[in-house]
Structure formats: C-alpha cells, structure tokens
C-alpha cells in the first residue's frame, strides 16, 4: 500500500502539486490547501532571497508553477536549484524590475515555460538612502520610485493581456508598515511604500471588470538582509518601537498564497498588515 501511495504521490507532483506525500495530504486539513494553486502560474519579482523567496517556495508548495527572478544570475540559479531540489516546479530568469528589457524577458520566460500567467507578486524593492527626505537627490527619488512604484505597474501592463483571459487572476504588491508609520531617515522609501497602498486601490478598481484582483501585503519588520542593512544605520530603536517582535519571511508567505487562491475570490483592493500588530483602523 505504501508503494502504491508513493507512486500516486509522484503522479501528483507531475501535475505541479505539493511534494507532501499523498497519505499526509488526504489525512490532514492542510492537505486541502496543498493543491490550492494547482495548474496556476505565478511570476514573482525579487524572489531569490528573503520575503520573495519564502513566497516563491510557498506558492510552489501549494501547487503553482513559479517563475522566480531578481537582478543577479547567480542568485536566480541558486534559488531555482534549491526549490527544484525540494521537488517544486520552479523556473527563473534575471529581471531588474527597473529595466524595460528585463521586464520583457520575464514576461517572455513565463509564457515560454508556462504558457501564461495567473498571479503576479511584486516583491522587489530598494532603499538606497538613509537620510533626510529633502536632502535626497533627484537620482535617488527616481531610483526608489522607478523600482518600488512604477515597475509593478509597468510589468503588470505587459502581463495583462496574458492574465485577463485566465480565470481567477490576481496581483499582490508588497508595501511596508512604514507606509502607515513613517520611520525617520527613510522618508523617500516611506513615501514609495505609501504610494503602493494607493496603487493597490486604483488597480483593484481598474482591473475588477477584467476579473483580476489586486491586494497588497504590508509587512512589519522581517528578518532579512534588507532589514539588516537598514538597521546598520542606527535605526533599530525606531524600527523596534513599531512592533512587538520581528517576523520571519515565511510568516509573509501563507497570506500571499491565500490572496492568490480562490478562497480570496471576493477580496480585492485590500492592504493587509502582517506585523504582529496593525496600526490601521
Ligand atoms: N525586510 C523587511 O523588514 C521588510 C518590511 C517591509 C517591506 N519589505 C519589502 O519587502 C521586499 C523584499 O524585501 P526583503 O527584506 O525580502 O529583501 P532581501 O532579503 O534583501 O531580498 C531582496 C530580493 O529582491 C531582489 N532585488 C533587489 N533589487 C531588485 C530589483 N531592482 N529588481 C529585481 N529584484 C531585485 C534581490 O536579489 P538580487 O540582489 O539578485 O536582485 C533579492 O532577491 C521589498 O520590497 C521591501 O521593501 C521588507
């Protein structure tokens, strides 16, 4: 019986379902969710490390075929190798989201390898400045707004023709708690993350007639290289005052899978705080 179950389990893997053995899936409640995204395709920016990588792993565990991406080829290769090594259906390509030709390549890769796209998760974000908002150069403003705010919209505009003919398509943006509670010396970044809350609302209204939902993940302070770089500048006390504790990247992943799934079919335009506490009314 064990051998039989194992062979059925491998058949399921071939259909891009989770690598959880069939017996476990049948017997557990989580089993019902483990194929919640089966046959779906997810494109995720900034997904070779940190929050994006945790989301990529979770969507793939939940049955999706995932296209990971980031600026550096070696990071893409490593992320793809790790996730494929776990039996997950993952491919990848280089995509600096601020570069038009890279966005085109990401779309082409998803279409070539997966034949379409159901979900876009925009995780890539940068913060090159810790300092005064009014002291920021035009170059810094352009970089932060280009990567954090404009790139998700420009990438989605390229993917839209391929998403609107699929049933249950959805987009998840990634903002930050600093959108609600600004941290001193991160003014330009804070502003870009507040803009994403508005982008989520506008796109949700605009894309509703096409059946595409748009929501936004709003993380607190998550233990990644990004936050380590930021706390190097003496901001730890300000960041700590926002929250009860720092989070793990995996704590951001389940909610994104839910937002993509049909369980969230009536949820759009929502900004969801994942931060041990929410400052929202
Ligand atoms: N960590 C936190 O506490 C926290 C809190 C709230 C919001 N966020 C947001 O969450 C997102 C991810 O942050 P993280 O903490 O997971 O960072 P991270 O661990 O430093 O990972 C960043 C990922 O994005 C990629 N990346 C960076 N710039 C990119 C670009 N221009 N185009 C495409 N990919 C790019 C990186 O790979 P390459 O180097 O290969 O490009 C890497 O895969 C960001 O938008 C950040 O603002 C983070």
TrEMBL record:
Keywords assigned by UniProt, alphabetized: Oxidoreductase
InterPro entries: NAD(P)-bd_dom_sf, Sc_DH/Rdtase_CS, SDR_fam
Classification via Pfam families: adh_short_C2
GO molecular function ontology, one term from the record: carbonyl reductase (NADPH) activity
SUPFAM superfamilies: NAD(P)-binding Rossmann-fold domains
NCBIfam families: PRK07231.1 (NF005559)
PANTHER family, alphabetized: DEHYDROGENASE/REDUCTASE (SDR FAMILY) MEMBER 4, DEHYDROGENASE_REDUCTASE MEMBER 2
Family: Belongs to the short-chain dehydrogenases/reductases (SDR) family.
Protein name per the record: Dehydrogenase/reductase 2
Organism: Equus asinus (Donkey)
């Amino acid at each position: 019986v064990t051998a039989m179950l194992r062979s059925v389990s491998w058949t399921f893997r071939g259909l891009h379902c989770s690598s959880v053995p069939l017996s476990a899936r049948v017997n557990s409640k989580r089993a019902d969710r483990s194929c919640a995204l089966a046959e779906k395709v997810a494109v995720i920016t900034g997904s070779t490390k940190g929050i994006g990588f945790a989301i990529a792993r979770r969507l793939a565990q939940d049955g999706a075929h995932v296209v990971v991406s980031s600026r550096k080829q070696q990071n893409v290769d490593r992320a793809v190798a790790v996730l494929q090594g776990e039996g997950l259906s993952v491919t990848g390509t280089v995509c600096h989201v601020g570069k038009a030709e890279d966005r085109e390549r990401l779309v082409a890769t998803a279409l070539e390898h997966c034949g379409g796209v159901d979900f876009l998760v925009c995780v890539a974000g940068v913060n090159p400045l810790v300092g005064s908002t009014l002291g920021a150069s035009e170059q810094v403003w352009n970089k932060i707004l280009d990567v954090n705010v404009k790139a998700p919209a420009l990438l989605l505009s390229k993917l839209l023709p391929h998403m609107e003919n699929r049933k249950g398509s959805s987009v998840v943006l990634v903002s930050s708690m600093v959108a609600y509670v600004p941290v001193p010396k991160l003014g330009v970044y804070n502003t870009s993350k507040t803009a994403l809350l508005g982008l989520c609302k506008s796109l949700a209204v605009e894309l509703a007639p096409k059946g595409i939902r748009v929501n936004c993940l709003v993380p607190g302070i998550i233990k990644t290289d990004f936050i380590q770089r930021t706390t190097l500048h003496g901001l730890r006390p300000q960041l700590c005052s926002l929250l009860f504790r720092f989070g793990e990247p995996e704590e951001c992943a389940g909610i994104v899978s839910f937002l993509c799934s049909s369980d969230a079919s009536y949820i759009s335009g929502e900004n969801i705080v994942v931060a041990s506490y929410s400052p929202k009314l």
